[in-house]
Amino acid sequence: MPRYLLAALCAFGSISSSHAGDSLHDRIDGLIAAGHPNFAKQAAPLADDSEFLRRACLDLRGSIPTARETRAFLADPASDKREKLIDSLLAAPEYARRMTHHFDVLLNERRKDVKVLRADWEKYLTHSFTANRPFDLFVREILSADGVDNEKRAPAKFFLDRDFEANIVTRDIARLFLGRNLQCAQCHDHPTITDYKQEHYFGIYAFLSRTFLFPKANLPTAVLAEKADGDTNFMSVFDKTKTKKTTTPKMPGGKPIAEPKAEKGKEYTIAPTKPTVRPVPAFSRRALLAMTLTADRNFARASVNRFWAFMMGRGLIHPLDLDHGENPPSHPELLDILTDEFIAHKYDVKWLIRELALTETYQRSSVVPTGLETVPEDRYLVAALKPLSPEQMAYAIVQASGQADADRTEAGAKAEGLTIRKTLPISAVFAGPAGEPEDSSTATLDQTLFLKFGPVMRDMLAKRPNSLVDRLSKQKDARAVAEELFLSVLTRKPSAEEITDVADALKAKGDPEAIHRELVWSLMASGEFRFNH
Amino acid sequence: MAIDPTLARVERELKHTSPLIGCRFDPSGRYLYATAQDETIVRFDTTSDEKLSLVGHKSWARGLAFLPGSTSSSHTLLSADYHGKLFWWSSADATKPTRTLDAHEGWVRAVAVSPDGSTIATCGNDHLVKLWTAAGAPIRTLEGHASHVYNVAFHPDGRHLVSIDHKGILKDWDWQAGKCVRDLEAKALHSFDPRFYADIGGARGIAFDTRAGKVRLAACGITNVSNAFAGVGNPLVILFDWVDGKPTLLKLKDAFQGTGWGVAFHPDDYIILAAGGSGGRVFFWKGDDATSLHEVKVPIGARDLAVKAQGDQFAVAGANGTAYLYGFTPPPKVEKKPAAKPKK
Amino acid sequence: MRAPYFCNTAAHSVNRRAFLGTSLGAAAALTPLGFASAAAAKTLQKSQKRVCVIYLSGGASQLETWDPKPNTDNGGPFRSIPTSVPGTHISELLPLSAKQAHRLAIVRGVNTKENSHSPGRTIMLTGRRPDPAIQYPHLGAVSAKLLGSESDTLPGHISILPNAEGASNKSDAAFLGPKFAAILLGDGKPPANLLRPKTLTEEADLQREALRKKLTDRFARSRRSAATEAYSESFDQADQIFRQADLFDVAKEPAKTSDRYGKHDFARHLLLARRLLEAGVTYVKVSHSNYDTHHENFDFHLEQMGEFDRPFTAFLDDLQDRGMLESTLVVVMAEFGRTPKINDRYGRDHWGTAWSVALAGCGIKGGAVVGKTNANGTAVTDREVNGGHLFHTYLRAVGLDPKKNFYPNDRPVPIADPAAAAIDEILA
């Protein structure tokens, strides 16, 4: 019996719709189905092969499939082709590149590369995701790095290229790893969220407050150093009595960490006898941050929520950084199970992503069924649209236009570097402002003009051996042109109406190459291309 | 007189309370006149501790020149200010000006007197060079420059006048005919800094080599400017051969960041430059050698240079208000006191 | 912000309206100025308020502009000259501006307590000190948001720079969103990529646009996504601006007018600002480079103020002639002033302690002078104000209430710093 039907039955009973013995992806689907009455009737069907192929490639490879891949997938009769596709995408090197782009922007927010070079940082991320480093160990590495050892400096970028500004680091640790935006709790208990208290903010801050950049904050080669003393005190700006409070390091809602009392004279392993000496305390608060945070259940919860959003387009807790009592997850039991399973599987990222990809929830179509009047935001009746990230847009454009194919024809094994260079001006235009979480959903004038008239896009339309414009010129009729065009750019076959549109366009006067170019452009500039659907 | 530049040392510090802008020795060499940012001119008596304040300008003055007096020890000082005015001061009683004249619109940047003492030349921000009698009656105006005129000097023969502007264009005038005879280019003294959309240039100092024979003209300023608003550049002296107009760019043996503010010819066949910027320096070139052979560190940025006609001393106007009087005499020996005998 | 697809939300209704094309009027023939009729132009001009900021990059010296101290130890060589306001003197470097002092309000008691370029800039353009916890939107983004309207076909926030290379506007709208971020015009040239490339004929452009729209519409219908509609709308908006590309071409201005401004870069840029403001752009900032005169301050101010004085006054006259002055706020500011103490290279260094800002136009009391500094400019002695007070004043001048809030993420953020208030003395 299909999962969703079983779930529909179970929704009226008290039987849990998720059985521990089932695979995680089945349990997910069961709980999703149980989360809305008449789910089976109302939900969109599964995405067709084109939709699924494009979505999976964008999510797991960071780009769209080639026309050849699309044709092959559409023609493949195997019943398990989707699972095979997912596995091949996860095994390919492009998976690590895709995760590198995603986590670079997530963690570094397009900040200037000053204290850790871009190349080193990207290499570190790529290596971590190629090796499928357990996520808790990955985050632990980032939060315990001090930048001293040059070979191991890259993970320290999270701290160093924020200039270790303690308030910014506190805010971003809470946001990114604990799913809580505690920014408003810096000066007082959060005015509208009762669960976010000033002591939560400063509990995290206390891990960091003894750390400083050494020897000078503005040196590109600066490293982290730490004193053995220094208390964290705070006061609420709303408190008229001006009561000074104090806290030792702790996670929000957690116990303060045990701090050994150092013998006088033995506070340091390396004491700061001179300003040129980098102090190393006998007990490091910052070193404990990594262990304490990654052991906190909220870390697993927030991480799983982010990976869910990465695949599904929306977190179970939404927004991703507002996990609190008055903003419950859309599917609380599901989130708990995902959290438990992620921990049980030792934070295995590839395993988690694979499970998510295998769900019907992930594979649902984004086409709204005609009967459905209202589409609730958080019930997963219909797949959500995700705007392409700047990197996805760039890679998709170089692939859709066939410039990546032309590079492979021209340079063979050396093509990758050429293609990557082509993506850079495109992702730069779409990139968000530095130092802020990236939101790719709004179009700005400069982006639109870039697409319309910019020389980079014009170059994408160039006819080179095996570029799309070149391949179009070799098609025998309008139908063949339309097919090659739609398969290459939109990863699907054209409808009858679309074939007619193409045929009409081809009838126009003028240079056929020019017509081909602008056909390619029209599809690349369309909403269907801009979104992952 | 023959000098040894390596012996150059500060023989006296002539102190004033406000940063100095320009300085000149009177023809007798006894007095050093220095203009200052407090709008006064200070007259230092180099033979005593006497100082006199010449009060009258209501703006900064830089240009200084002399009309000969009736005796060898008397003279009239001319000073030109940034309100466009020219002042006359008598050495007999220099406490107040004997005459003032509205010479230019905007800054008068320099003033010069013809060798025979009959004619005064001024130049300024109105792009004009003007000629006056010694009594201040206008003779004529020379037009042609297209930017601020920074400096002006008479050729030793008195018939030619040279003026040089912000963009490094040097004009050779037959001033009596009112005609520009030729243009020479000192373009290395001008830069446009694209980072700040600003021009920097002009000859801050100018001098004719008045010895008979090969006549040369020196102009100094700043070159190699990579940051006009931070003064990152190097002092430059351009030496022109008067006859063929060929320029030679004098080089510094060791790099220095700053502007060349004053240049002079020393009778012992030296060219001396005072520069200020990243501190102060005085550079010496000998004869035809285009590379400096000696440099002296000045305690503060130098803003002008004056060389006594006799050549035994030169003065540097300091940005700290002190004029440093340099000479070439060996330093006084420090007497070693005999060790105190131990008490029995 | 994401456009969540909810029925019955404001976001949905806005985007549905756009999707159906009712806000576009794209089919209507537009005059070169972008208005459907001259009468409409006039009405728009009357009710619409605009802001023009002239930004003297690098920090212009208050002693060489609005608050001279001649004949003092810090005064430097320039005179002060009388102005059209009895008792008010400004630097001799601004002879034409002196004749228009009756239109200007001068604030001489500015103390922003900041001597660095970037924080100084933040203070002057956002009305607040830089804060690691939150980015505040620039005056341009605030103006575009609060004074602009949905029917605007031109971007509401434009910044004219001598050179746009390396400049970034990505954060200047902060939480107001990229729609209100500045469009940068380097050397007053049109926005990058505004003009159709030669390899694309008009006919080909129209055809491809038609196909793009058809595909997008089909897709949007099947997904019913507000975000897709917004994406498509961005092309229509770009098209609107493209049709008004002539606006950005200062050469189209009659010689009689452009001669009044002059031919140099700043003159052209200010003239372009007038064109844009007249066409309905809410906020234009024109930057004049550069004033960071640590070396030879006086020579460089001679040059830069020489470039400023005539176009600035021509601009005020031009606004007045077109009936725009009373609805356009003009602010002349910098990130800070310059030190009264003159350094040993005739330079003045960074100085946020006692300096000046000048204003004119909408809501401003012409001829007003508020704030005093001491005899040689080293301190404010009367009516000290900071960037917050100035920001309140700009908003009040154009009829906005600075005590109101924005609500990013449903959290109230005061539009202006609550610790400051408007400088009433210069408000009309």
Brief summary:
The complex is a heterotrimer of chains A (533), B (344) and C (428). Chain B contains no helices and 30 strands. With 344 residues, chain B is mostly beta strands.
Describe the overall structure.
The complex is a heterotrimer of chains A (533), B (344) and C (428). With 533 residues, chain A is mainly α. Chain A is built from 27 helices and 8 strands. Helices cover 52% and strands 4% of the residues of chain A. Chain A is globular and about 90 Å long. In chain A, 48% of the residues are buried. Helix content of chain B is 0%, strand content 53%. In chain B, a hairpin with a 3-residue loop joins strand 15 and strand 16. The radius of gyration of chain B is 20 Å and the shape is globular. Chain C is an alpha/beta fold and 428 residues long. Helix content of chain C is 33%, strand content 15%. In chain C, strand 15 and strand 16 form a beta hairpin. Chains in contact: A-C, B-C. Chains A and C meet through helix 11, helix 21, helix 25, helix 26 and helix 27 of A and helix 6 and helix 7 of C.
Kindly report how far apart the N and C termini of chain B lie. 55 Å
Contiguous runs where pLDDT drops below 50 for at least 5 residues of chain B: none
Summarize the helix and strand pattern of chain B as letters: EEEEEEEEEEEEEEEEEEEEEEEEEEEEEE
Which CATH class of chain B applies here?
Mainly Beta
Q: Largest interface, counted with CB-CB under 8 A?
A: A-C, 59 and 60 residues
Task: Give keywords.
heterotrimer; A: 533 residues; mainly alpha; 3 domains; two-stranded antiparallel sheet; 27 helices; C: 428 residues; alpha/beta; Alkaline Phosphatase, subunit A; 2 domains; 8-stranded mixed beta sheet; 11 helices; 16 strands; disordered N terminus
